[in-house]
Specification:
globular; alpha/beta; about 15% strand
């Protein structure tokens, strides 16, 4: 049975590709939000029409992206949420809360510098990792019972 994993959060690094590569050979399917920042920001106005007010521009895009995000989280067995170093990812925290509320197995991924700020999010997770390869190792362990090394 395929393990469905939704990879949420930070979109400016290749952490998703690292996890996917680390899970080669496993029966895992991955899904994610749109990671092209411009496409994600502009999807609403590109489909529904221009907005002169930036609030409504963002509002249209956020709602359209929420359809994809909700579906991905609802269909996932495991949700991985990555908090990057550069930007405040409020939407990533929201995704983690949604996953926890739905009873999804939640893995949180962030550096040590965010331990204090994310202590409540970490407390809701079943695992907290600092590196993408640790997430891949967790998924391998879950599916195969295999330890790294």
């Amino acid at each position: 049975m395929t393990l469905k994993v939704y990879l949420s959060g930070e979109i400016h690094t290749d952490w998703r590709e690292e996890i996917i590569a680390g899970c080669a050979g496993l029966d895992v399917s991955f899904s994610a939000p749109v990671t092209d920042h411009a496409a994600s920001d502009d999807c609403g106005v590109a489909i529904l029409g221009a907005e002169p007010d930036k609030f409504w521009h963002d509002h249209k895009g956020a709602k359209l992206n929420a359809i994809r995000t909700r579906r991905g989280i609802e269909q996932a067995d495991v949700v991985v949420v990555r908090f990057g170093e550069k930007y405040k990812q409020w939407n990533a925290a929201f995704d983690a809360g949604m996953a926890a509320a739905l009873g999804k197995s939640l893995i949180v991924l962030h550096g040590a510098e965010h331990q204090h700020a994310l202590k409540e999010v970490d407390a809701a997770a079943l695992a907290v990792a600092e590196r993408p390869e640790q997430v891949a190792q967790m998924l391998r362990y879950v599916l195969e019972g295999e330890l790294p090394g």
